[in-house]
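Postdoc handover notes: sequence design on the structure in folder B. Input tokens:
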């Protein structure tokens, strides 16, 4: 599975003695974060502030508005912000707050003449338990303390008022025979197998969880056509009601014991996620729109965890439905799915023990799928018990794992069978606990990227593996935060990239001072790129900026010139020479992934094709047509497959399928290139068996280098040895123009 790697992080330090943070929302128009502070028991004041990534403390945040917010209800000691939302469709920057006391407040950052900056546009006398805006911002769904659901327009006019009644449970006549569950599977020949397989062993009654806090949750489907409400029905069970935009009740969920108040509808619309408490552990359970269960996965929690930091759990999907954030009191877990299995990818912790009884405040960016904000009274950092990043050294014998504020070194050269645990060679503590990434330089040097005390500073540490000693490096490679650390292809140096897109090469000085670092700027890119690979085939690497936004790039070095390949976020694959003739052109517009191998540029397209472009010193780059049946440089692959790595010595390419599994293929272009390399070094045995195994015409053994072959007949016989193999070769010899075309790359025949 592809990992989630922390590329950049901004830290905001609040005022420990001030108002606590209570809600956050992204302002997509300005790409800033709107934060609400208060009210609290000590001060019934609400403050709205705007944060940009450059902010480092509360004094640098821009104050939008501040007002008194006493609780209007006698049984509510402190009012609470249930929903904070920035209305993108409004004429001016407008922020809407929904308070549990019943007030609906609109704050205008730039009020027009005749408008108030802070205005209470509506109020619910009974109080509000939950609220959520539809994705298109045309409807506002509000649940009241009187067990009613209100639909309001963007102008806050009520269009529907639906009451929750016990009769709602009759709207869905669930028929679930339980196929796919353990109790419905064949279990042997004895009496237990004689029972009716359509009758489950246990039927849930919908018993409430002892940890249930009684909250109500509202979640909209991604297209805004349906909304789901998770509430307690008659103090007996949890029920998820699904309504259409016009307020028609469509379905209710089947009874589930231990179901809690967390609810998040996947934006793609196929599943709703909830939390089920099972005594000694908890599961994330999924429901379809008709209310039936549709799978689950277990969270890595113990009974003590559920009684402590995991007693308050909430869920939220990101905008493209790829990552599920599970929020606890003091951390946020990020889960992804592949091949119908869920993987824990990251844990984001708070620097301290959260005192709030609610889950951490975390929300996804509405337009950038992997931008997440976590806001608590403490500084948000990534540390904890899970591995944050791993790296393998040059020879592939050692593996380094970043775990909280330490680096563990493992010996993986002794692994001979699947499931074998690598031997731990030792560990080293880091000077700070905010490490993000690591990379090997050679076999015994390890560089670690850590965050400094300020948001605008990123530090580097070096770990000497033979002594397991760690030291900080000076000078710092860039005044801007470093987003990515990676090893060069030859593992002789490391490359870094800052937030402005500049690529920096770092190495040890000549005197090998362990605290010094020699940095050299190699170029600047339009933006920080997600993945960087460098092909090193010369003494110098030069970088050049692309004309459009690039998210992945590679650099090819040839003795004559350098060629920069870039993949934009729109799928545009560019090639641009950093010196010499102008080769800055657009290769394809539908690229999904790419790699560089010796002599080839390999990429996949959205038409599910794998293509090869021959790389030569003259700089010619010819992209083959979509003709897999005619051209060896084009091959059909499974829908959605992406490149993982290429093994030139094995003539193999590894692809990752959408289900998460890996597949190895042997493209004809790589096989022919491998055969030609073997013939060049007179390794006829390897070339012969490659032809036999991959069904390649054996005439290439002679036709590629006829004079060399005729002078090496004795060597060929000595290497092949077996008479039957020599007979097989002689039986296939013939004159064929097609065989002659296989002897050289297609680009050389023009």
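Designed sequence:
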């Amino acid at each position: 599975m592809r990992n989630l790697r922390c590329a950049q992080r901004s830290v905001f330090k609040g005022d420990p003695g001030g108002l606590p943070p209570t809600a956050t929302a992204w302002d997509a128009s300005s790409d800033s974060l709107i934060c609400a502070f208060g009210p609290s028991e000590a001060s019934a004041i609400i403050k709205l502030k705007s944060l940009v990534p450059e902010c480092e403390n509360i004094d640098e945040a821009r104050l939008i508005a501040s007002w008194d917010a006493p609780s209007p209800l006698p049984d509510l000691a402190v009012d609470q912000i249930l929903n904070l939302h920035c209305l993108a469709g409004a004429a001016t920057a407008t922020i809407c707050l929904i308070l549990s006391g019943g007030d609906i407040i609109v704050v205008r950052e730039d009020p027009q003449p005749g408008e108030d900056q802070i205005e209470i546009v509506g109020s619910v006398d009974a109080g509000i338990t939950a609220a959520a805006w539809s994705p298109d911002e045309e409807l506002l769904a509000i649940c009241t303390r009187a067990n009613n659901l209100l639909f309001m327009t963007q102008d806050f006019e009520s269009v529907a008022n639906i009451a929750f009644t016990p009769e709602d449970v009759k709207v869905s006549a669930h028929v679930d025979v339980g196929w796919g569950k353990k109790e419905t599977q064949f279990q042997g020949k004895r009496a237990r197998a004689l029972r009716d397989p359509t009758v489950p062993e246990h039927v849930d009654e919908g018993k409430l969880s002892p940890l249930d806090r009684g909250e109500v949750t509202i979640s909209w489907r991604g297209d805004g056509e349906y909304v789901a409400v998770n509430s307690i029905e008659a103090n007996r069970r949890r029920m998820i009601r699904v309504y259409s935009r016009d307020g028609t009740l469509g379905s209710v969920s089947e009874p589930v014991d231990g179901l809690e108040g967390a609810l998040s509808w996947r934006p793609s619309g196929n599943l709703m996620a909830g939390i089920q408490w099972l005594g000694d552990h908890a599961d994330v359970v999924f429901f379809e729109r008709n209310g039936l269960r549709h799978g689950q996965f277990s969270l890595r929690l113990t009974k003590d965890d559920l009684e402590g930091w995991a007693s308050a759990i909430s869920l939220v999907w990101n905008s493209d439905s790829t990552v599920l954030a599970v929020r606890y009191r003091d951390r946020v877990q990020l889960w992804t799915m592949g091949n119908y299995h869920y993987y824990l990818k990251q844990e984001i912790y708070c620097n301290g023990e959260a005192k709030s009884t609610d889950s951490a405040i975390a929300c996804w960016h509405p337009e950038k799928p992997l931008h997440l904000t976590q806001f608590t009274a403490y500084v948000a950092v990534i540390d904890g018990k899970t591995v944050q990043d791993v790296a393998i050294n040059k020879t592939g014998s050692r593996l380094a794992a970043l775990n909280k504020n330490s680096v563990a070194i493992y010996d993986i050269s002794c692994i001979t069978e699947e499931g074998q645990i690598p031997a731990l060679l030792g560990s080293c503590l880091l000077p700070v606990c905010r490490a993000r990434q690591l990379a090997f330089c050679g076999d015994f040097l390890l560089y670690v990227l850590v965050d400094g005390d300020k948001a605008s500073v990123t530090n580097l540490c070096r770990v000497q593996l033979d002594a397991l000693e760690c030291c900080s490096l000076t000078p710092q490679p860039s005044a801007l935060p470093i987003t990515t650390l990676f090893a060069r292809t030859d593992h002789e140096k490391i490359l870094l990239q800052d937030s402005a897109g500049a690529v920096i090469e770092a190495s040890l000085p000549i005197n090998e001072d362990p605290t010094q670092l020699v940095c050299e700027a190699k170029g600047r890119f339009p933006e920080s790129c997600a993945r960087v690979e460098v092909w090193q085939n010369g003494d110098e690497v030069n970088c050049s900026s692309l004309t459009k936004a690039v998210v992945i790039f590679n650099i090819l070095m040839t003795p004559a010139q350098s060629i920069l390949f870039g993949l934009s976020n729109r799928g545009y694959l560019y090639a641009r020479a950093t010196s010499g003739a102008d080769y800055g052109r657009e290769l394809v517009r539908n690229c999904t992934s790419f790699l560089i191998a010796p002599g080839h540029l390999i990429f996949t397209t959205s038409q599910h094709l794998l293509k090869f472009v021959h790389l030569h010193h003259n700089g010619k780059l010819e992209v083959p047509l979509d003709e897999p049946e005619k051209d060896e440089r084009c091959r059909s692959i499974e829908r959605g497959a992406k490149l993982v790595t290429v093994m030139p010595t094995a003539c193999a390419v590894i692809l990752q399928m959408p289900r998460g599994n890996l597949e190895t293929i042997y493209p004809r272009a790589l096989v022919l290139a491998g055969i030609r390399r073997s013939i060049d070094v007179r390794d006829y045995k390897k070339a012969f068996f490659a032809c036999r195994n991959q069904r390649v015409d054996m005439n290439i053994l002679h036709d590629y280098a006829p004079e060399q072959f005729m002078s090496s007949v004795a060597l060929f016989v000595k290497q092949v040895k077996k008479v039957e193999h020599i007979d097989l070769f002689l039986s296939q010899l013939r004159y064929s123009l097609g065989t002659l075309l296989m002897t050289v790359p297609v680009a050389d025949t023009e």
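Context for whoever picks this up: Residues 124-171+204-317 form a domain with the Methylamine Dehydrogenase; Chain H fold (CATH 2.130.10.10). Don't rerun without checking with the PI first.
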